[in-house]
Amino acid sequence: MAIFLVGITLFSFAISGAETADLIYHRGEIVTMDDAHPAAEAVAVRLGRILAVGNSAEILKFQGNSTTVIDLDGKTLLPGFIDPHSHLAQYQQTWGIPALAPPPVGDVRTIADIIAKMKAYIVKKKIPPGELVLGNGYDDSLL
Predict the structure, then answer these.
(1) How confident is the model at residue 23 (pLDDT cuts 50, 70, 90)?
(2) What is the domain partition of the chain in residue ranges?
């Protein structure tokens, strides 16, 4: 039994040095995206990967001499969202023109809704007859 306890003690000392966090966020609401544990108070990061998630007391145990510690002061920390497909340049071109998207993005449910939105836009902008008028977000497969 004594040998087992000595072994466990030495093992814990060995891992404690290897598990020092590079970065700790604490005293906030960490959204984990884990259904079993949807929120935590703190998170430790090492080499760009999450090392541990828990309460501040647990996570601050991963603090070393070179660990950057950020006090969230009650703020919420969300995971990074990566959008692999976006059309950022298109937003500038479509800004201000009628939005014709169906639910859940917009409120257009029928062709009559599209016509009504386009007519309202033409009146509001005082567009003369015969001019090209653009709308954005139309999806015939969802009407």
Answers:
(1) very high
(2) 2-77, 88-142
Distance, CA of 21 to CA of 125 (rounded, Å)? 57
Backbone conformation region of residue 65, classed left if phi is above 0, alpha if psi is from -120 to 50, else beta: alpha
d(CA 134, CA 131): 10
What CATH number does the domain located at 2-77 have? 2.30.40.10
Residue with tokens 């939105």: 117
**Burial of 87 by CB count in 10 Å (0-12 exposed, 13-18 middle, 19+ buried)?**
exposed
pTM for the model: 0.49
CB 83 within 8 A of CB 48: no
